[in-house]
Amino acid sequence: PMEKSIGARVELSGSNNDVGVFMRDVMASQLGDEVDMFIFESGTEDILGPRGFYAPLQEDNPELTLWDRTSDDWKRTPVVQDREGNQWGVPVIGNADSFGYFPEKLGMDPDSTDELSWSLMFEDEATRGRVAYGRTWTYSMGPAALYLQAKGAGEFGDIADLTPEEAKMVADYLIERKKAGQFRTLYGAFEEQIQLLTNKEVDVINCWEPAVREANLVLGPDAPRYAYTKEGYFKWGHGAYVASQAMERDNVDNIYKVLNYFLGGEYRALQARDRGYAGPNMDLGVQYAEENGWSEEEVAALKATEAKVNRKFAKPYVSTTTPDNASAMEEEWQRFLNA
User: Fold this and answer.
1) Strand partners, 93
2) CA 63, CA 56: separation in Å to the nearest integer?
3) Assuming Cys at both sites, which of 85, 94, 159, 288 could form a disulfide with 317, CB separation 3.0 to 4.6 Å?
4) Per-residue pLDDT tens over the stretch 160-174
5) Could you give the 3-state DSSP secondary structure of residue 30?
6) Global pTM?
């Protein structure tokens, strides 16, 4: 669709989702010699921007026509700026992750949009032994801290960047819950999320929203639901960053055409429809759908996605792949995994 719309063709090359491996490839292997653009989750710009691997964003580039009308809520965030506020990228997509659950199994109204507590994940007797929990610390440690803070069992300066003492507190709690039999399994890949849901092996799982959508394609609409929560969410975003070497090439205009496409209505509408993700300029997504003959149901779903994300983004917390205390957090997480 993008090539048809703007005439720019992109050759995609997958990268490792491990932030350490990704940054090593960019820095040690000079990946920017081969590619024009990187797309990755928030955090890498804090390191790769100041070290010269990402080019500063040219906000006045004539191809970046949608930049000025893009909300600061998306373009001036830790996803695409470093800690000093330098602009390294363009926001691509984002979401606020929570957990999938089966209302029928938990005796809940399947049509309800009430906020549920993360206690269903961590310490509810109704779900004990029926919970799947992600085994990656960057994804799963924060929600546990979020829950502990909300119930008054701990105070954390920055849930996305726990101090060694804070990380130990979270790990101690998770070890206690693990020994109590709260978790049926610890999963790894996205495909496992889908499998656990479609096989109904668990009642609750902290997962990506598309896993719930995929399960519903098999089990029927709203068989598992994706939760609104009382305490907050694992909020994340992906940014698109230009390789510094690319600024010396002859296709800078095309690069910025693609960056601008990520801010436009077609990309927004397709992502929201197919993945449930949101991003900047959702109103342009609705406009695109209306102008291109999408059904009333599809347009209504886009508007619902915008409202959903706005509701979720009003709560904590924003994740990062590169916390300063990463070593301590990973060490404590390993202690939980090995318990």
Assistant:
1) 238
2) 15
3) 159
4) 999 999 999 999 999
5) coil
6) 0.89
